[in-house]
Amino acid sequence: MPLMKMNTKPLGWWQPTINQPTAGDQALLDAIKRVTHPLFLINCNGKMAVSMGGTATIGNKKPSRSDVLPLIGYAPAIHPKDLGDPQFKKAHNLRYAYVVGAMANGITSVEMVEEAGRSGMIGFFGAAGLLTHQIEDAIDLLQDRMESRSFGMNLIHNPTDPELEAATVNLYIKRGIKLISASAYLDLTLPLVYFRVNGIHRDNNGKVICPGKVVAKVSRVEVARKFLSPPPQKFLKLLVEKNLITSEQAALSAAIPMADNLTAEADSGGHTDNRPALTLLPTMLALRDDITTKHDYVNSIGIGLAGGIATPESTAAAFAMGAAYVLTGSINQACVEAGTSDTVRQMLAEAEQADVAMAPSADMFELGVKVQVLKRGTMFALRAAKLYELYSRYGSYAEIPTNQRDILQRDFFRCTFHEEWEKTKHFFAQRDPKQIEIAENKPKHKMALVFRSYLGQSSTWANSGDPSRKIDYQIWCGPSMGVFNQWVKGTFLENRKNRKTATVAMNLMFGATVATRVNWLRHQGVTLPHEAERFYPLELSKIIELLDET
Question: Is the Cβ–Cβ distance between 332 and 480 less than 8 Å?
Fold first, then answer.
């Protein structure tokens, strides 16, 4: 590489030890990926050469030795385990600041959570949408398999079924679950606060200890403020009145935030406000700092980033902006451990960045809340939007024009409204029987339940891979899926069968260290060959070799 493409003003001086510098683009490419070794770029007789050894002196003063050469670039050693907040990693006994996010209906499966834990990361089981006995079955497996490794369970806000939320919290407390991912919350709830403050006490040194750990996933400042603040007094008072906590515990709760960690959820799959990460994360970091100062918290609240984490560059950018950890979701759904069908995995593996759309959610249908889903290969987004339009316009199913009802019964329900209502009744008889009573007296609510039934079943059809319902599949997905597919195109990860959770995660984390080293060199005025600008996926064994961990 010609000298004119280098920073002509040396950073300092380099002197060899044993190994002499090596010229050529390939030597540079190899050295950049040896991330656990320092990288020295040297002006060697007008050409750029690279070394992973030797010593360097920064500054204009030239050492007296005759063998010194101008230092034109330097990248220190960095390991994927160095990325992120040390406090976050220590708190959860992790090697890497990487979270496998909870995807509902067990899509983030026991196997996926186990794989994350065995790889030095942490996963949250996708408990949302499951009944308590199904959640308990997952707890049984995870507590048996994970040994001392960390894992968490999801707790989703469901304003239409608060009893299930309360039952889930009671189950978690009963089974000794100490870590949850709180998602889709618009406001705090009594069960959530109960999980947080249950068992709070002072240790022998007078430090407030809170056994229940909460990682909140939020995209709105007003919601983040609630999680960053202490538990509301109104809920603490109720818990005392119910004899669930003591007055002393209520008083101690003023010293802690509702969440130990907060994930800033940018444009993601599922529940999302489509916020840009570049604005959301700095806002959450500033809010954290303000509230921490206000309440004088002992421990800092780590702020992670989710949404759009799909390439080494986006992963590196998250950490560069100050993220304590990164959380992935959509890209994991195409991994072999995901609790979904092969058909869905293939559809996701073929998705492009623009192949997503917003659609009404099943759990918050009446509120108009939307989720981001895959639109390529399915008509779910269009059909869900049609259902919400009809619900908003008419007071009952009977008021819908006959031609529209015919379409619903033929294409959506594939049976009569009455038959669909009977199936819906059976579902709610197990989940929330009082909804049936309300529906029998309120035709609009009855219509809503039937429409919600279709929306809920659509994800079940997707997870089971029902071929007769492919057009109705609800597949939660953000634009990160398409970005990931573009990045891995032409590599072994293009084939979905090679997409293992740990392999995907380590490629992102290792790739982030490569991208970080490349940026360090760019900032020093070094113009790199195009091949060095991008990192492409490697087999896990190769990454381990490059990390000198074989």
Answer: no
Average pLDDT over residues 468-477: 96
Q: CB of 250 within 8 A of CB of 277?
A: no
The amino acid that residue 234 corresponds to is K
Spatial separation of the C-alpha atoms in residues 539 and 450, rounded to whole Å: 47
Compute the distance between CA of residue 328 and CA of residue 98 in angstroms, rounded to an integer: 8
Strands 270-271 and 261-265 come out as: unpaired
CATH hierarchy code of domain 82-328? 3.20.20.70
Report how far residue 232's alpha carbon sits from residue 225's, in angstroms, rounded to the nearest whole number.
12
Residues 263, 217: contact at Cβ < 8 Å? yes
Report CA dihedral (538, 540, 543, 544) to the nearest 10 degrees: -170
Distance, CA of 448 to CA of 391 (rounded, Å): 7
Cα distances (Å, whole numbers) of residue 6 to 20, 42, 45, 531 = 19, 10, 13, 16
Residue ranges, CATH 3.20.20.70, the chain? 82-328
Distance from C-alpha of 417 to C-alpha of 400, rounded to nearest angstrom = 12
Query: Do residues 371 and 476 touch, judged by C-beta distance below 8 A?
Result: yes
CA 183/CA 180 separation, integer angstroms? 9
Rg (CA), the chain: 27
User: Which string of DSSP letters, residue by residue, matches 367-383?
Assistant: GT-EEEEE-TT--HHHH
Distance between CA atoms of 370 and 357, rounded to whole angstroms?
10
> pTM to 2 decimals?
0.94
Q: Give the percent of the chain with pLDDT over 70.
A: 98
Q: Crossing angle of helices 342-349/443-464, nearest 10°?
A: 90
**Could you tell me which residues come within 8 angstroms of residue 110 by beta carbon, excluding any fewer than 6 positions away?**
125, 138, 141, 142, 145
Dmax (CA) for the chain in angstroms is 94
Segment 57-66 shows an average pLDDT of: 83
